[in-house]
Amino acid sequence: MAVNGVAPYKNVLSQGFTLDSKGQKMSKSLGNVIAPEKVEKQYGAEIVRLWVASVDSSSDVRVSMDNFAQTSEAYRKIRNTMRFMLANTTDFDAAKDTVAWDDLSDVDHYMLVRLNQVIREAHADYLKYDFSSVEKVISAYLVNDLSAFYLDFAKDVVYIEAADSLQRRQMQTVMYQALVALTQMLTPILPHTMEEIWPFLNRKEDYAFLSDMPQAKTIDGEKDILQRWHAFMEFRSEVAKALEEARDAKLIGKSMEAKVTVYPTQELADLLGSLGDSNVMQMLIVSGFKQAAVGTAAPADALDFKDGAVLVEHADGDVCERCRMTRTDVGTDDAFPTLCARCAAIVRANYPEAVTEGLESKQAK
Fold it and tell me: What is the number of structural domains in the chain?
């Protein structure tokens, strides 16, 4: 400054003190210091980094070993969610299997729009050195949007549909794009974990650190997509309450044992109609879904909510051994007496040897 008359930096990042659980400043004389080596030995160095990124370091921050235990759980959720997506994209070649935007489903569009939101917010937060907001935005997408919603019902597609089916490739497209973007955004915070993931993504860069941060895109109709799916998420929450009540009443066990009937307002009927009954049933993870006509009176035991009412009943039929859904068409294919018609058709079309084995087994019995 004395020589050039200007500060030799663009910004100053000010950080507070690290305090113990009682709010006292950590110092050797008080004996209340938590050595990073102790945390690394018990939880790993990535947990220290994730904890630092998750707190507002511009102020004084209290810390105890319990904080690192909680951070370890948050790390486990991040790692397990990304591991699930990796496991289900092992046969996905981005160069030839990626499904174009126009050929993706509505829910795929929603997940990519939400990913675009996360990229935009995380990028802005990184530029402000607001690492705690980066961590919160990314973790919320991983835990709430992916793990608790999309990946939960994706199992009925990626595990069940034919390997090269359009529906499976659609979901793999979303998973792969999310994996790449999330890995790049998390690399400054969890470098070792993200570099561990990177080789499986088959990117041109040898290391995640050599790749660029993802940039947000301009998506036509983004606002409308978010509004429509926000409304669906509210409806899904109401159905979840009804399923929980049915579970408490011992009417069902898992949600896949349930049949759901909704008595909607016109607004809700229009929303659900735009998604299709089969897609709604899949996203709710139930074995039956039906929309009553608008204006139909709901039975007394239905759960009322703002946009209508929901009735949960036990689904008719038997449990399919393959998809675990309760279906009335289990055993309709002679070669596969324990499979529903959907699963039998998939196996018959893609694994002809299984058809022969199934018929021979039946003849032997």
Answer: 3
